[in-house]
Amino acid sequence: MTHPPNLLNDDGTASMATTLMMAHHGFRRDLALFSRGLAQEPAAEQAAALRDEWQVYHRSLHGHHTREDGDIFPALQDEHPELANVIAQLSAEHRRIDPLLVRGDRAFAGLPAAPSEAKSVVAELKALLDDHFATEEAKITPHMRAASQFPAPRDDAEASMYADGFAWSMYGIAPSVLEQVHTMLPEILRAKLPAARARYAERCQRVWGSAKTGASTTPVPDWF
To answer: Would you say the pTM of this structure is higher than 0.70?
Structure first.
């Protein structure tokens, strides 16, 4: 893997590319945490927490690539027709992700017995996403760096949903990056972040056994 791009633009500002790559960081981070949790042969209580977290991961990753296929990629292809082949490749890879997630549902449902299948799914998904995200970061996100404002939520419920999503994607990101991300968010969303991040820290403690964070400045976690 080539050196991953910086989350922030060259001038030190955040952009929609930053938010997309923070999600990539979160998906990579959680696969590493799943791998670590499964390696410890989880007991019943921990296995239940891992099962619940896998369901969240499944919904989040499926939603991420569904939004790319339905919104982000078509808009970029309209502006940059030269991306057509890359986008077709990425969309084809999206169709390979969902069967792995379904396999993961079955494997995690079987915990704490026979964790080997869950370990296998996590390893296969990591291999697929490492290449997939690297392609997006090389070919797609450079065209998103000029967009410097996050869209305003339509209502309070949507603002709460976005706040929870950002609390997840901010975990393990350097404070210097988060400071710039805050400046691009609407006030209604910024106001909800402290409570959302506190809830997410509690969730991390329950699922992973720690709420310790790191300080990544790229979409690849650097703090394990």
So the answer is: yes
